[in-house]
Amino acid sequence: MILASQSPRRIELMREAGFDVQVIPADIDESARPGEGPFELVERLARAKAEAVSSAHAAPGETVVAADTIVALDGELLGKPADEADARRMLRALSGKTHQVATGVCIARGERIDSFVDITDVTFYELSDAEIDAYVATGEPMDKAGAYGIQGTYGRMLVERIDGDFYNVVGLPIAKVVRALNT
Ligand SMILES: Cc1cn([C@H]2C[C@H](O)[C@@H](COP(=O)(O)OP(=O)(O)OP(=O)(O)O)O2)c(=O)[nH]c1=O
């Protein structure tokens, strides 16, 4: 099985679930199309990643799993921060509010392509500017959608409540993925 993702968290979740995955990241254009909603976007990108890797690298009948995660706040899309100022802007916007984390997953098995989106609601505590600056200074936000990692030593301190799958926020709703692989 191939995992079309460079995300260390996805690799670990698949390996812990017992899949001896080969890692071949997909290099695709991840920009949103005009008018495209965040949930449509993650599903399309997951499919694009799976199809790109499947057509270029998969052996006949080999399964390819791909995913894409974004944060959506009031319908606005928050991807990975461009720099520290961008990370501060995102965290200020998320402070005291509930946002959605959406992960699109695609499983390509030859001609058969299945995809789904899983959504988790995450509520942040009110964050002071000092807290945001301190969090950005840890470096944790930089490679993560929405500029935080719920699994991180510091990121977990921002979160008041979640409704949905924790692993979906981390980047892969592993229970759903395993169930989909078994169908
Ligand atoms: C919100 C949130 C995101 N993230 C991560 C998950 C993803 O790795 C990243 C979103 O970027 P993605 O573009 O989904 O994934 P990636 O670039 O890391 O890997 P690839 O494109 O090769 O599959 O943000 C966390 O780790 N914790 C969190 O709490």
Keywords for this entry:
seven-stranded mixed beta sheet; 34% helix; binds thymidine-5'-triphosphate; Maf protein; 26% strand; elongated; 183 residues; 6 helices; alpha/beta
CATH fold category name? Maf protein
Low-pLDDT sequence parts: none
Question: In percent, how helical is the residue content?
Answer: 25-40%
**CATH architecture descriptor:** Alpha-Beta Complex
- For the termini, the CA-CA separation is 16 Å
Biggest beta-sheet profile: 7 strands, mixed
- Number of helices, counting only DSSP H or I runs of 4 residues or more: 6
Pfam families: Maf
Cofactor: a divalent metal cation
Catalytic activity: dTTP + H2O = dTMP + diphosphate + H(+); UTP + H2O = UMP + diphosphate + H(+)
Keywords: Cytoplasm, Hydrolase, Nucleotide metabolism
Describe what you observe in this structure.
It is a single chain. With 183 residues, the chain is α/β, with parallel strands linked by helices. The model has no long low-confidence stretch (mean pLDDT 97). It is found in: Cytoplasm.
In short:
It is an enzyme of class 3 (hydrolase). This protein has 183 residues and is of the alpha/beta class. Helices cover 34% and strands 26% of the residues.
